[in-house]
Structures are given as structure tokens and as C-alpha cells.
Write a structure and sequence with these properties.
This protein is of the alpha+beta class. The protein has eleven helices and 19 strands.
């Protein structure tokens, strides 16, 4: 369960981690009032997506009138498929340096992992691995001050910054444990006036532990496309690629995503059409994929409860009504396979029986592929 920035910042504040002054605003009037009280501020879109700044989701205002205009432009805007409904007005910082720090779980070692870097302010995936310091936590011991001092030393920090980082790591790990978090992240961890302050924050709580956190705000968040598919009753997650995917079953969908990546493509989504979705919801889901305007659509069905002829009818329904204006690759095998393949062939659509060549073909049609 991802938490909005303002909620994550509230948790940091409760644990004594310095954050800038800020408040949640719901309309331009509240934004103007916030800047009147706080002073020059950053107005930050409260959506659960990374890269807000580059996408226009973080803007600055120096006075109430400017804040009113900026908020009016931001509230209601589309930001990477998410509708901005609220902003977080936060005091503008004169940042001297930017670091990165997080606590998460190393799924291979099955223990907590603290990661830190002097290269903050960008997605950690974009930071060269040699610039990331990793320290694993013994859960029986936890994170004590010496752990933070070692981390600071490995980063090359000294004096006040080293002491503040050591203290911050202890508090960050306490949040990680108390909140049953999957991730606690501060990026950037800013240096302002020679001291550390959390300029941004992420807090993801393990869904399986929500029963232990009754006060956690349940977030009904997702892109408009995600919400649309969820209403159909199918599982969907938007990704950042351009090859749209539909498969039946979570395992098959994940395998399809992996196959596209293996052959050098970039999946645009994860879509689990379920183990027994009928023609209509399958057609509705395919309509959603078409509306994404991908470069290629790849449908990968291994029919068990799902009937291949139903999938074929859904494909033809969309083709004959709204149309499928991009290359379509279909892998169809299992229950009523012959009937489904025959229906598609009558419409001039070929179907693969194996996943690997189908995935490879989808990537080739996109114009990519492994070198």
C-alpha cells in the first residue's frame, strides 16, 4: 500500500526526522493561504508516480497570487495517467547537496537492506551501482547507532552530516519495522544550511500487514486506465513500455512481461485477464489496451478454464467495432484451441502455439530485439 508524500512526511516527522514546513491543499484558495503562511513554496502533485518534477508535477510559487494560479493549473491535470486531485505545499529549500537513502527488503537474502548514495535527486535505478552503498541488517540486532556511523563513513561523510545520518538511519529503520514497510525512502535527502532534511519521502506498507495498521489511509489510487480495468474486474498495472500485454493468470502475465523483456522489448502493462473471463470483459480489456496507443499488442493465452474460442471472439469483436490499429500478436493454446484458431484465421489473424516465438515476434514488430 503506497502512501502519498504528505502521509510519508507525517510519519517521518513523528519519528523526529527533519522535514520542511508543509500542508495539504485541496484547491487554489488553500494553496494561496499556505504560501501566505509558509512563504515561497513548492506545490507538489500528490500522485503515486515517480518523476513528478520532469512531468510538471512540482512547481514553485513565491507569493499567494502566484500560488493560486499555479494550483489552478495543476489541480485536475493529467500526470502520467493520474489525475491530480490534491497538492502538498512545502517550503522551498535552498539545497546544497542531495543524497539518497532507503530501507527495503533484500528478497534474495531475506533480510532488510539499507541503501545510500551521494547521488540523490534521481531514481535509484539511474544511479551507477558503484555509487551505491549497501548494508544488510541482522534482524536479531536491528539498526543501532554504530550501523549508521559505518554507513556515513563508507559514504565519506564527516562531522555534523555523519552524526545526523547515523541518527537518521536508526529512525528510518524504526519506521520500517513499526509500519511493516516494504520500502521507506528519502530522495532527495537534502543538505540545507549544513544539516540533513527530507525533501521527499516514500512509504510503501505491506498489504498483508494492513490489519495491524488500522489508522493507515487506504488509498484508492491508480491511473485512469488502471481504474477502468479494475472496474471490469481484471488485474492491471501500468508500466512504462510500448508493447501492450494481455495474458490469463497472474503467473502467465508475469512470464509474458519477462519474455518481452528477454527479447529486448519494453512491456507497457501487466494485464491478467483471469482464469475464466468471458467474451465481454475480455473485449473491454482489449479495448483498454488499444486506447493506450501502444506500438504492438501481444495476447498470450494458455486456455484452461479460459476458452480459446471466447478469447478469439473477444479479439474479433474489438477488431470489427473499434478496430485494432497496431500490429497484433496472438499466442493461443489450450481449451477449444482449434475453434479459436479457426475463428482468427477466418479473419486473417495467425496464432502462435508457443510463447517464445510469439514474444520475439512482438518485439520484432516493435522494431526492437536482442542484438
Amino acid at each position: 500500500m503506497k502512501q502519498y508524500e504528505y502521509l510519508a512526511k507525517g510519519v517521518l516527522r513523528e519519528h523526529g526526522i527533519p522535514i520542511p514546513p508543509g500542508r495539504l491543499v485541496n484547491n487554489p484558495g488553500e494553496a494561496a493561504e499556505a504560501v501566505r503562511d509558509i512563504g515561497p513554496a513548492a506545490l507538489k502533485a500528490q500522485v503515486l508516480v515517480g518523476g513528478r518534477g520532469k512531468a510538471g508535477g512540482i512547481r514553485f510559487a513565491t507569493n499567494p497570487d502566484e500560488a493560486r494560479g499555479v494550483a489552478a493549473a495543476m489541480i485536475g491535470m493529467d500526470l502520467k495517467g493520474y489525475t491530480v486531485e490534491r497538492l502538498y505545499a512545502e517550503g522551498k529549500l535552498e539545497i546544497e547537496r542531495e543524497f539518497y537513502i532507503s530501507v527495503t527488503t533484500d528478497r534474495n537474502k531475506k533480510i532488510p537492506l539499507v541503501m545510500a548514495s551521494l547521488a540523490g535527486g534521481v531514481e535509484i535505478e539511474d544511479v551507477d551501482d558503484s555509487k551505491i552503498v549497501r548494508q544488510w541488517v541482522d534482524p536479531r540486532v536491528g539498526v543501532l547507532p554504530y550501523f549508521g556511523r559505518e554507513l556515513a563513513q563508507r559514504l565519506g561523510l564527516e562531522g555534523t552530516l555523519a552524526k545526523e545520518l547515523a541518527d537518521l538511519v536508526v529512525k528510518l529503520y524504526a519506521i520500517f519495522r513499526e509500519k511493516d514497510a516494504e520500502l521507506v525512502e528519502i530522495n532527495p535527502l537534502a543538505v540545507v544550511g549544513g544539516h540533513l532534511i527530507a525533501a521527499d519521502a516514500r512509504l510503501n506498507i505491506d498489504d498483508s500487514a494492513l490489519f495491524r495498521h488500522k489508522t493507515v489511509e487506504i488509498i484508492d489510487e491508480g491511473s485512469d486506465l488502471e481504474k477502468k480495468v479494475h472496474k471490469i474486474g481484471l488485474a492491471y498495472v501500468e508500466l512504462d513500455g510500448d508493447i501492450a500485454i494481455m495474458a490469463n493468470g497472474a503467473g502467465m502475465a508475469m512470464a509474458t512481461v519477462d519474455a518481452i523483456q528477454y527479447f529486448g522489448g519494453r512491456p507497457a502493462n501487466f494485464l491478467d485477464a483471469g482464469g475464466g473471463a468471458s467474451v465481454e470483459p475480455t473485449a473491454q480489456a482489449l479495448d483498454v489496451l488499444v486506447s493506450m496507443k501502444p506500438k504492438v499488442i501481444f495476447i498470450n493465452i494458455f486456455g484452461g478454464i479460459t476458452r480459446c474460442d471466447d478469447v478469439a471472439r473477444a479479439i474479433l469483436q474489438v477488431k470489427n467495432t473499434t478496430g485494432i490499429p497496431v500490429p497484433l500478436v496472438v499466442r493461443l493454446v489450450g481449451t477449444n484451441e482449434k475453434e479459436g484458431v479457426a475463428l482468427l484465421e477466418q479473419a486473417g489473424i495467425s496464432a502462435y502455439s508457443d510463447m517464445a516465438p510469439a514474444a520475439q515476434r512482438a518485439v520484432e514488430l516493435r522494431g526492437g530485439g536482442r542484438s
